[in-house]
Design goal:
- By secondary structure, this protein is mostly helical.
- It folds into two domains: 1-97, Serine Threonine Protein Phosphatase 5, Tetratricopeptide repeat, CATH 1.25.40; 100-240, Serine Threonine Protein Phosphatase 5, Tetratricopeptide repeat.
- Helix content is 64%, strand content 2%.
- The chain is built from ten helices and two strands, in the order H-H-H-H-H-H-H-H-H-H-E-E.
- The chain has helices at 2-44, 48-61, 66-78, 82-95, 100-112, 116-129, 135-146, 151-164, 171-182, 197-200, and strands spanning 211-212, 235-236.
- A two-stranded antiparallel ribbon has the order 1-2.
- Helix 2 (48-61) packs antiparallel against helix 3 (66-78), helix 6 (116-129) packs antiparallel against helix 7 (135-146) and helix 7 runs antiparallel to helix 8 (151-164).
- The longest helix is centred in the N-terminal third of the chain and has 43 residues, at 2-44.
């Protein structure tokens, strides 16, 4: 009898130990999920330093979280840490190869690094994957204009953009810029000119800059938008 009760006791201890282990794992998983949610919340509150730390912690515990790489890439992009952002976006698409938005971001980074062909390749890929990323047309035109000095392809890309996004508040300015580019007498300022291209095209306050998520206009509750194929996820950001 003592041996029988001893065996029961051993089994009971083993069961309790397993339960405690499972509870501990569940607690760790919940803590990780909570940290990720906090990081996303801080991101959309423009608390980028805090968000960065939490995303880095998340990736140490869960290196398969493609969205964390993508968010962290956004933070690096804002800090103009272009090589770091590029590596993070590439990791994001390795994990989520269907992420058109991350290909768009990669295109942005290449544009900012002055690498026109690579930027175009990724903007085109983002559009092939998601036609709703209309601003990719705009950025393709921007790349042709600012880096490659290619008037004809700038015109074609921006006309595609205006057809796709007639609601853009800058529609008339872009249309006027297209008409100027079509004028055979209009010459683009050469690289290094004192006259900025945007000034030559009479774009006024329409600053031709890279786009990132405009986090200050988003609420923490809108974090899910980052995973959705919606044009409102992409903004011009004149703060950069």
């Amino acid at each position: 009898m003592p041996d029988k009760y001893h065996s029961y006791k051993i089994v009971l201890i083993a069961i309790l130990s397993t339960c405690l282990t499972l509870t501990s794992l569940e607690a760790q998983k919940k803590e990780t999920e909570d940290n990720y949610k906090k990081a996303v919340k801080y991101f959309f509150q423009s608390k980028f330093e805090m968000a960065e730390l939490l995303f880095q912690e998340e990736l140490k515990k869960n290196p398969e979280n493609g969205m964390a790489y993508s968010y962290l890439g956004d933070i690096y992009l804002r800090k103009k840490r272009y090589d770091g952002a590029l590596n993070l976006y590439k990791k994001a698409v390795d994990l989520n190869p269907g992420s058109a938005e991350d290909y768009f971001r990669i295109g942005q980074v290449y544009y900012l690094k002055g690498m026109g062909p690579a930027a175009l390749e990724n903007f085109k890929k983002s559009l092939e994957m998601n036609k709703n990323l209309k601003y990719a047309y705009y950025h393709m035109g921007l790349t042709y204009l600012m880096i490659l000095r290619d008037k004809q392809n700038t015109i074609l890309s921006w006309e595609d953009y205006l057809r796709a996004a007639p609601e853009d508040p800058q529609y008339d300015k872009i249309r006027r810029a297209i008409e100027l580019l079509k004028d055979p007498n209009f010459q683009l300022p050469p690289l290094g000119s004192d006259v900025p291209i945007e000034e030559a095209l009479h774009l006024g306050g329409m600053v031709l800059k890279d786009q990132v998520r405009k986090a200050e206009e988003k609420k923490a509750g809108h974090a899910e938008k980052k995973t959705k194929d919606k044009i409102e996820d992409i903004y011009r950001d004149d703060d950069l």
